[in-house]
Amino acid sequence: MQISTRSFNALVLVLLATACGSASDPDSMPAANGSGVMQGNVMGGGSQSMRVAVPSSSAATTTDTAGGFLLTDVPKGAAALQFSAGGQSATLATAAMVSGEFRRLTVSISGDSATEQNEQTETEFEGTVDAVDGAVLTVAGRNVAVTDATKIRKEDAAATLADLTVGTPVEVEGTLNADGSVTASEISIEDRNDVDRVVFVGTLTQINGNTLTVGGLTVNVGSATAIVKGDTILTLAGLMVGDRLLVRGAVQADKSINATRIRVLPREGDDEPEEMHVTGKVTAVGTDNFTIGDTVITVGATTEFEGNGLHGLADLKVGDFAFAEVVKQADGSLLAEEVKKLTPPMQPMPSM
User: What does the alpha-carbon distance between residue 154 and residue 126 come to, in Å, rounded to a whole number?
Assistant: First the structure.
């Protein structure tokens, strides 16, 4: 069944343009064009379920039994989250959402105070390179720092910083810092010639070879499609009917979507270890742990160290710029699977 372009706008988050389509899954019906998705975890605030909402919008949900939440219709420009339960309320100021952004964050609640653990906040968004200043790009109005740990690719081939010229369309994945800048872990160069870009959330209801049905929409998976869950890279065989997916891709002439990236979102009660990236300056080093910003990270016998003469925890110093791939333990602590010592990116000079 064909429906109008206006109806399709209600089903997908439009990044550059719109097209026609059909859908039956209410999960794939975000409230407004350009809106994004927030996946989060609330620490503190008691054991009761909390309401999580974006002020002055329809974006709202409640936390699950583990404190997790998923907001699928966060409007572009939203810069606050409100948490409420049992007559108490706390508001968290955040970096403004950009169009079609996916963000993953951890929030600590204590009474009427909410704090974001910025070193753990991850973001994924698309845009065009508007400026290049050394190893710092401007994408979607944000400063994006490229480090020696940043993976740059074009389709399924490696690329370099030199390929990121002004006007290049990219997808950025990385750590969202307290000042709104991003330290990129991966940058993908996209081919947007004569295609409409979309991003939407829906439930996977059918798998037929390399073709998926997500929220009533046909999604084509190719060799260059990145499929991820947290920080884990999956294959097509790793997807299951019933998975809730965030899909990015290009609308084709037959109204199907060629997926460039598919992210598996958590189900309620999902107890798999949660992986994440932590990037920033080292502020403390202990006997079996170190701290990036305010985030304490434990190291173990299986932790791998690399980069700039880093062979173990003893080689890490306060003031170093580091990247850590960590997994969240049952007690809420973070265990490092991999630690890299990086060359800190040069920040652009402020304009006079």
Answer: 14
